């Protein structure tokens, strides 16, 4: 009789679901309004593309760094759970800093007047990734404890 392996039979599909939902939320956020300014609405895809060039221009633009952290979390979710967990947590912290910013650039017309649903989808994608990483980490700890108990 084959011994139950929680890492392969249960966690993989759940981890993939969290990764998929995180990716879907992120992709949806790219086509939704992220924030509103006096000059108009900013869509997420423009932030992703132009954020590379503008993140030196202020705290709001520095929040773009949450994107590569989320990408690293996605890439390390299967084999390096600790990295994925850490990157997800840092990405959320950086993304939430955007709520404290009042201007996107040094232009007075770029004063943030509100946040769109795209911003919340963006943060939700990081939160879903964090939850998926926590579940994977928890199961790995349980599996390690079970193996050490069986060996003694």
pLDDT averaged residue by residue: 81
| Radius of gyration (Å) | 19 Å
Strand order of the largest sheet: 2-1-3
Order of helices and strands: HEEHHHHEH
Low-confidence stretches: none
Shape: elongated
Largest sheet properties? 3 strands, antiparallel
Helical proportion, percent range: 55-70%
What's the N-to-C terminus distance? 21 Å
Which structural category do the helix and sheet elements fall into? mainly alpha
Q: What proportion strand? A: 5-15%
Give the helix tally: 6
Count the beta strands: 3
What does this structure look like?
The protein has helices at residues 6-29, 44-54, 59-62, 66-75, 81-97, 117-151; strands spanning 33-37, 40-43, 112-115. The protein is mainly alpha-helical and 152 residues long. It has a three-stranded antiparallel sheet with strand order 2-1-3. Strand 1 and strand 2 (40-43) form a beta hairpin. Helix 5 packs antiparallel against helix 6. It is elongated, with a radius of gyration of 19 Å.
């Amino acid at each position: 009789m084959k011994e139950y392996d929680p890492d392969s039979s249960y966690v993989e599909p759940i981890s993939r679901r969290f990764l998929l939902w995180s990716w879907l939320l992120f992709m949806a956020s790219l086509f939704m309004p992220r924030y509103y300014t006096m000059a108009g609405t900013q869509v997420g895809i423009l932030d992703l593309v132009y954020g590379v060039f503008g993140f030196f221009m202020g705290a709001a633009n520095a929040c773009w760094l949450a994107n590569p952290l989320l990408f690293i979390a996605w890439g390390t979710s299967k084999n390096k759970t600790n990295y994925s967990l850490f990157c997800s947590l840092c990405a959320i912290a950086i993304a939430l800093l955007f709520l404290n910013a009042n201007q996107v650039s040094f232009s007075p017309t770029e004063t943030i007047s509100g946040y769109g649903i795209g911003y919340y989808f963006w943060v939700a994608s990081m939160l879903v990734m964090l939850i998926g990483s926590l579940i994977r980490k928890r199961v790995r700890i349980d599996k390690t404890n079970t193996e050490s108990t069986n060996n003694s």
